[in-house]
Amino acid sequence: MRFKFFILFAFFILTSVPFVSAQETTDKTKTETTEKKDKKQKNKQPANDLSKGATAEQVAESAVYFYGGLGGRDYLKQIRKTTVERGKITLTNAEGKIEQANYERLILRGDSLDKERIRFDQEYPNAKFALIYNNDKVFGIFNEAVFTPREDATKAFQNQIWHGLEALLRYKENGSTLALAEREKIMGVDYYVLDVTDKQTRKTRFYISSKTLRVMMLEYTEDNTKYRRKFYDYNYAQGTLVPFRSVLWANDKQIEETNIQTISFGQKVEEVIFNES
Predict the structure, then answer these.
(1) Is residue 64 part of a domain?
(2) Residue 258, exposed/middle/buried by CB under 10 A (0-12, 13-18, 19+)?
(3) Number of folded domains in the chain?
């Protein structure tokens, strides 16, 4: 029943075709029969026909609506004031060496991503450190001392933020622009292809399933390297949609896999942990 509701909602929000009511009649039975027939006809509409004439904004807003558990932007803002996420990350460096770490990601939500505060702690067998994003600045903490991360580590951390799902879910808050490219079918799955470009001209291309309105993949290019991140294992956390696994490729080489073990929203997060001193 919930899936049918999703499809009906997508039909209404992604098309400009007005709803056709059953013709008024004094015969109540006849009216109910007509309405049932109308509903059956709508249910038979294939998912890839629901968005004829859709605009970029309609696709984006529909995705935001579903990620918010049918509560949309307002519900996401209400629930995700803070984020506490823990899991495991597997990294593959340029030499092919694989490293695994436990991680904790703590977030204090800002009005936009540039005002977000994020702390990403990583614990390896022989080292533990944190990368922090605060006031659009990145720095690190190791043994309670502040350090400047390597440029590649800083860029990778920033890309998680500016080329992640939040770039789409908060495109309005970020002042980003939208452009809808030609739809694509990959491995039998039909996608809306949506480009989101922020005020710093960072562009991310999102592949959004026309059936579920979930982002299944995103792409971006930096320093002549094409990155592709795929999302798996979607589930709900406090009524909002979360992919619990993601994999990142650089020029078709896998360089990162992230598995969320626990995630919660709205817990108290101390502001001091995001400070340099």
Answers:
(1) no
(2) buried
(3) 2
Could you give the residue ranges of the DSSP H alpha helices within 68-107? 72-79
Say how far residue 146 (Cα) sits from the centre of its chain. 31
pLDDT tens digits, residue range 99-117? 999 999 999 999 999 999 9
Contact partners, residue 223, CB within 8 Å, separation at least 6: none
Answer yes or no: do 84 and 177 share one domain: yes
Whole-number pLDDT of residue 264: 99
Q: Decide: helix, strand or coil at residue 44.
A: coil
In a domain, 107, yes or no: yes
Report which DSSP code applies to 246: E
Q: Which domain holds residue 120?
A: 73-274
Q: Identify the bridge partners of residue 119 per DSSP, sorted by sequence position.
A: 106, 132
262 pLDDT above the threshold of 50: yes
- Cα–Cα distance measured from residue 251 to residue 229, given in angstroms and rounded to the nearest whole number: 11
Could you tell me where the beta strands, DSSP code E, fall in the chain? 82-92, 98-108, 117-124, 127-134, 137-142, 145-147, 177-186, 189-197, 203-209, 215-222, 225-237, 240-250, 253-265
Instruction: Give per-residue pLDDT as tens, 68-91.
Output: 999 999 999 999 999 999 999 999
Could you tell me if 119 and 162 lie in one domain? yes
Q: What is the mean pLDDT of the chain?
A: 87
pLDDT value at residue 52: 64
- Rounded distance, CA 102 to CA 89, Å? 6
132 and 188 share a domain?
Answer: yes
Give Cα separations from 189 to 50, 179, 210, 227 (angstroms): 15, 21, 8, 20
The enclosing domain of 89 has a CATH number of 2.50.20.10
